[in-house]
Structures are given as structure tokens and as C-alpha cells.
Design brief:
about 250 residues, two-stranded antiparallel ribbon, elongated
């Protein structure tokens, strides 16, 4: 005799697209989509006995979640995070430190302007002092991964060019211009994307952003750079390696 209190199988009522979506998440969790493309829509439609549109609906859910990206003529791939090591400053090319095939830097603004009060205070100068301002957009394999706004000493405007900052990391350009940065202090927090930066970073308004506020100093120590960097949280990861002091562990 059937048990009237028994609940119907959840899986039996599960829509086909939801079943495929769950399967795709399981593939991502096992490392799929990094070294080779995810299964094609045609292959999945045959495997699950559904239409290509049903498979596409499942894939769209992953695209909207920022988990996969579609590459023309190459298929669907997992979205890999750019990883930045907080433990060291390096002048090496981004392609050596970030796991991406192509890194580009687009200079959005390079000029001289008067410093607002909060920037002037960090440099120890009077508000309104003219300094060099650089604004860049960095991309990894075509996707925006970082917006930077950087304030630097006024004399760097004469010693450097827009092209310098498009071709090399900032600290490399500074070193070539005679400014050697030896230490950087960073504060990292989070906020939601405003309309302006959402457009620049090609994300939705209100998406989570990682925010790094940094001050870089030379050997004196004298502040040589003040910067704000914004990173889409679904595309960027910070890594920190911290030595454990015996008897002092707050974790």
C-alpha cells in the first residue's frame, strides 16, 4: 500500500534546464572549462534528450552568474579569476604574473590636474597642488579586470607618456623615470558598482567591486603614488601569504 505522506521525488519534477544547469555546475566544480571548452550545446542536447534551446537556457544561467563566458568559434569556457599577490611588488609584465594569454592596458586619462583635499593630504601638499593623474583600464583576454586612478608627482608628466603606461606596469615606468618605489600600503574593501564604472568595467550596475586604496613610497619614505583600483569581484582574487607566529594565531 502506498504511503500517502511520502513526498514526490524532487528530481522527477525538476525542469530539464535546471537538471542540465546543475550538471554544468558540477562540471565547473571539478575543473572543467579551463583547459578545454565546456560541452557543446549540441552534445548536451543529445546527452539529455532535450532541445538546444533548453541547453542554452541552462548555459545562460551560468553566463548571468559570471561563471562561464562564450568565446566566438571557441565554445564556452569557465571564467577564471585574475589572481594578484599582495605579498610582493613586481615590475614583471602582467602576462607573467597573471594567468591570462593577453593583458592590455588602455590609458583613459593622462594629464595634470589640481589635487582634491583628500589626495593632497596623503602627499603632504596643499589642496589644489597640480599633480600628474593617470586613469587606466586593464583587460585580461579581452575582459575588463581593473580600473585604476593614480596620482603621481607633477614632474612625471614631463618624464613619461601615455604609451609608457600602456606598454608596462606603473612601477616599471616610475623606475625608468627615476622614481623607485620600495613599499606600498593597501587597504582593501568592497562596494557596489556605480553607473559610471559599471559601464567602463562592462558589468551590471550594483555588482560587487573589490576596492584597493594604495599609497606607494620611496626609501625616504616619501609618498610617490596614491591610487584607487576597482576590480569586478567575479573576475578578481587577492592572495596573501602570511607567516604564522607561534602562540599568536587569530584565525
Amino acid at each position: 500500500m502506498a504511503d500517502r505522506d511520502a513526498k514526490p521525488s524532487t528530481r522527477r519534477r525538476e525542469p530539464a534546464y535546471a537538471r542540465i544547469e546543475r550538471h554544468l555546475w558540477e562540471l565547473l566544480d571539478s575543473g572543467a572549462g579551463i583547459n578545454e571548452a565546456m560541452p557543446s550545446e549540441v552534445d548536451l542536447s543529445r546527452e539529455f534528450g532535450v532541445s538546444i534551446m533548453t541547453v542554452r537556457q541552462a548555459y545562460n544561467a551560468l553566463v548571468n552568474a559570471g561563471a562561464v563566458t562564450r568565446k566566438p568559434f571557441r565554445g564556452t569556457w569557465a571564467v577564471t579569476h585574475i589572481t594578484d599577490d599582495l605579498g610582493q611588488l613586481t615590475g614583471r609584465p602582467y602576462t607573467e604574473t597573471w594567468q591570462a594569454d593577453e593583458i592590455t592596458s588602455e590609458v583613459l586619462t593622462f594629464d595634470q590636474r589640481e589635487t582634491p583635499e583628500h589626495i593632497a593630504k596623503r602627499f603632504g601638499v596643499a589642496p589644489g597642488t597640480v599633480m600628474t593623474y593617470l586613469e587606466r583600464l586593464r583587460r585580461a583576454d579581452g575582459q575588463p579586470v581593473a580600473w585604476d586612478g593614480r596620482w603621481m608627482p607633477a614632474e612625471l608628466f614631463e618624464r613619461t607618456t601615455r604609451e609608457d603606461f600602456e606598454k608596462a606596469p606603473v612601477f616599471t615606468v616610475l623606475a625608468r623615470a627615476g622614481v623607485r618605489v620600495t613599499i606600498m600600503q593597501s587597504d582593501i574593501n568592497a562596494r557596489l558598482a556605480d553607473p559610471t564604472h559599471a559601464i567602463i568595467l562592462e558589468i551590471e550596475r550594483g555588482e560587487p567591486l573589490l576596492v584597493r586604496q594604495s599609497i606607494a613610497m620611496d626609501t625616504e619614505p616619501k609618498v610617490r603614488l596614491v591610487s584607487t583600483s576597482l576590480y569586478p569581484a567575479r573576475r578578481y582574487t587577492f592572495r596573501s601569504v602570511t607567516p604564522v607566529v607561534e602562540g599568536v594565531v587569530n584565525f
